[in-house]
Design goal:
Layout lengths: L16 E5 L11 H4 L4 H15 L3 E5 L3 H14 L2 E5 L8 H8 L5 E5 L21 E4 L4 H13 L1
Parallel strand pairs: 1-2, 1-3, 3-4, 4-5
The structure holds 1,3,4-trihydroxy-5-OXO-cyclohexanecarboxylic acid.
The site of 1,3,4-trihydroxy-5-OXO-cyclohexanecarboxylic acid (DQA) has 10 residues, from loops.
Length: about 160
């Protein structure tokens, strides 16, 4: 009797992972390359989509320079996303509004920073995101986004 193959493709959850990037990350590749490297945001989003596909995850990638828009997307994630990966950039150090929006989520939230913020200026050492994140990935460069997807996969 013919048997169906056990090597099925990974099952994609019905809801996507939101990968949200904050202010000035649209300038990656041009902005302080000695800190952030030469990889552009478009390159990162391509890497993220490839990695997500391999893991059987769907992703929605967005970037905004506006705090309120990030808050709107986090609120939208309450209904529409399975998890959130967030590099809130400079808002990580200042935004109580982003903290409060994340606190309403009942899903994995992974905070990502490309640079090691703890090796930099002291104003970068505090994050309003970390206390409402499932985990934090920091200082590993753009691979941090791929590691965040692996973390999400293990949590879903
Ligand atoms: C960053 C670190 C933040 O301190 C900074 O404001 C950024 C990028 C990072 O990915 O390393 O814009 O979040």
């Amino acid at each position: 009797m013919a048997r169906s193959s056990s090597k099925a493709a990974p099952k994609t959850p019905a809801k996507p992972v939101y990968v949200l990037n904050g202010p000035n990350l649209n300038l990656l590749g041009q902005r302080e390359p000695e800190i952030y490297g030469s990889t552009t945001l478009a390159d990162i989003e391509k890497l993220v989509k490839t990695k997500a596909k391999a893991l059987g995850l769907a992703v929605v990638c967005r970037q905004s320079n506006h705090e309120g828009e990030l808050v709107d997307w986090i609120q939208e994630a309450r209904e529409k996303a399975a998890a959130v990966i967030l590099n809130a950039a400079a808002y990580s150090h200042t935004s109580i509004a982003i903290h409060d929006a994340l606190a309403t989520l009942d899903m994995p939230v992974i905070e990502v920073h490309i640079s090691n913020v703890y090796k930099r200026e002291s104003f970068r050492h505090h994050s309003t995101v970390s206390s409402v994140a499932t985990g934090v990935i920091c200082g590993l460069g753009t691979i941090g986004y791929e590691l965040a997807l692996e973390a999400v996969k293990s949590k879903l």
